[in-house]
Amino acid sequence: MKKDIKKTIQIPSGYELILQEKAIVVKKGNEEIKIPYKIKDINPKVENNEFIIEKKSGNKTEKKLIHSLISHINNALRGIETNYEYKLQVCSVHFPMTSKIEKNKLIIKNFFGERKDRILDIKPGVDVKIDNDIITVKSADKDLAGHQASAIEALTRITARDRRVFQDGIWIIKKEKGRG
By residue range, what is the domain housing residue 128? Predict the structure, then answer.
């Protein structure tokens, strides 16, 4: 059954929402997050510090897409205020593994005694720091922070071994909304 869908978000003071073609930019100061969307025939607009999305005779799939877009905008507003933070722990049981950051690349040395280093590019907009065996990933964009943390975890993935015995790797241990 088709219904009219209308959702609004209050824009906090100091924030700016810019409407582009098939994207919404959330901005505060020099922080900026771009949220792309692919929903046909919606009418997003900004009026009186409110962001309004309207869809005439939308079905339930379009309603779900609009709710997802609203959640992405709320996450961007919250993320610019307090960064999203993921903490990962380096676990090396069999061989001493080392990790370091050089020129926007995370380098893992001596993983499982491998001679070749494992290298991962750090995405722009993400801050990665290493403190002993804890790797901290911070970003205002929740998606970017999550993707970077999972890419670091996947960098040390082990196949064809018993995971109960070979527990080496880098694992996500904490997800936070950040403290500033």
Answer: 84-176
